[in-house]
Amino acid sequence: MNGNLVILAGGISSRMKKSIPSENLDHRLIADAKSITKSMIRVDNVHKPFLDYLLYNAREAGYKDVVIVIGKNDNLIMEHYGKKKKGNHYNGIIISYAIQKIPGGRTKPLGTADALLQALQFRTDWEGKRFTVCNSDNLYSKHVLKLLLDSQYPNAMIDYDRFGLQFGQERIEKFSVVKKDDENFLIGIIEKPTSEEIDKVKRKDGRIGVSMNIFQLSYNMILPYLKKIPMHPQRQEKELPVAIDMMVREHPKSLYAFPVSEHVPDLTSLDDIEGVRNYLDKEFKTRELWD
Fold first, then answer.
1. Contacts of 70 by beta carbon, 8 Å cutoff, 6+ apart
2. Other CB atoms closer than 10 Å to residue 82's CB: what's the count?
3. pLDDT tens-digit map of 107-140
4. Distance set, CA 247 to CA 134, 155, 228, 241 (Å)
5. CATH for the 4-284 domain, from 3.90.550.10, 1.10.1200.10, 1.20.1290.10, 3.30.1330.60
């Protein structure tokens, strides 16, 4: 059991910055959303960044060693969590940073697979161990973080029940669906699924599993696929689910999908802020974290 966690926060938050705010949204939140990375938006009523809540859940689940993948010019995260590249102590967690470089000729990073590759190349001391990797703009629960940390499988993921997510139907239908065998081992992750593909993965009880991009992975098993993954032909990025698909095709029954039914607060656009704030107010009572 290794309390190692990679949080992917190197994106440029383009969808958040392009979204149109509602008339009722606080001007401070609009300014945050338009100027800083999503995970640092002070979305609650006590002005803590969203990322604090994810780190708090991670610590409560048992994670100790956290690598945050950040963009080259993202100084705000380092100013908040510690300015050293490695070994910042923050409320019982040790935080380090892997800076995701942008290749020449591009204006944005190469994607989530590239972000994880740079994190693992930075933390070669994790070789031979397992780690959890997740997005910075989703608030994963202590329950699922601990489920992965305590997993006895070499690789695992959370297979969310689509009907447990509290999003609009149109949005949910765009989520990646999870294709599994009868023993719940991953066969593949279908991005932007068609209605026919969704019907094929539907279980007899009507359950449809979706991926919210949280995985427990073996350093040694996933690393070769992060290195050789091809560029997506349309989006021109290297995406983590594709690398995982490559891995499970060559290593069947190597990644177990834990079925879970619960909501995952998400900060994709300005429309999400009010719902996330209400969730934090209910679940955390807007109290100061780390007490």
1. 9, 10, 37, 77, 78, 97, 98, 99, 100
2. 17
3. 778 899 999 999 999 999 999 999 999 999 999 9
4. 18, 10, 11, 10
5. 3.90.550.10
